[in-house]
Amino acid sequence: MTRRRQIYEGKAKILYEGPEPGTLIQYFKDDATAFNAQKKGTINGKGVLNNRISEHIFTLLGTIGVPTHFIRRLNMREQLIRQVEIIPIEVVVRNVAAGSIVKRLGIEEGTQLPRTIIEYYYKDDALGDPMVADEHIACFGWASQEEMHDIADMAIRVNDFMCGLFAGIGIRLVDFKLEFGRFFDNDYSRVILADEISPDGCRLWDMTTGEKLDKDRFRQDLGGEVEAYQEIARRLGLLPEGENMVLDLDKHRKSKGK
Ligand code: TMP
Q1: Cut 0.70: pTM above it
Q2: Domain carrying residue 230
Q3: CATH assignment of the domain containing 102
Q4: Which distant-in-sequence residues (6+ apart) come within 8 Å of 208 by Cβ?
């Protein structure tokens, strides 16, 4: 038996060579980091939940015409994706003030923003992912003007769709982060949505209680991380009512050494 080739290991995911050229396998780990990996931990079962939640959201986005790298889920922790060249820009969409914008601009957490804000951060761990302007992106050639136009357009469509999706299950979509990649088709490339959409990269607050149901539970030492992620999966209809099926199954697999 030959071991499959690892292409890349990030903080929360591993990419392996896929079964066909142009595909990769995206594996979701339980590792959690915050503050540019200064804080590290494990959230047992997170990878299973994020795989499922991201599959669900990417599939729905596909149905409204947002192109994504997602092909299909393979098992509890893995999905088959299209290989892309990741554009080194983290795209953050904000509807409500929280996190870094609160610190940077002194706005009170929870303030509804009068309009949606899109921010760009240059993906570079050594630099701590600094915020950049369109001018930096154009000047240093990280993405073309046309690509940035498509990215901003898709970010707004994803936001509109996800605001509705989450409002329908009693959750306020505060902010989230997206990543995009170039998908090559012969001589042409087009930008598609890549990475993942899960409570790791979104802020999701219960609409009535204000409870945080996302990675801020880990960042702020609030506890109950896995329960929060599970609550999101449950409300999205991905877990049978009153059961922790995904996690129980995962434990079962681990105990059998699979
Ligand atoms: P921020 O308020 O810390 O700038 O984060 C904005 C959103 O982006 C929040 O939902 C968390 C997400 N995010 C990531 O997914 N990865 C990151 O490295 C950072 C800094 C934020």
Answers
A1: yes
A2: 6-84+225-242
A3: 3.30.470.20
A4: 170
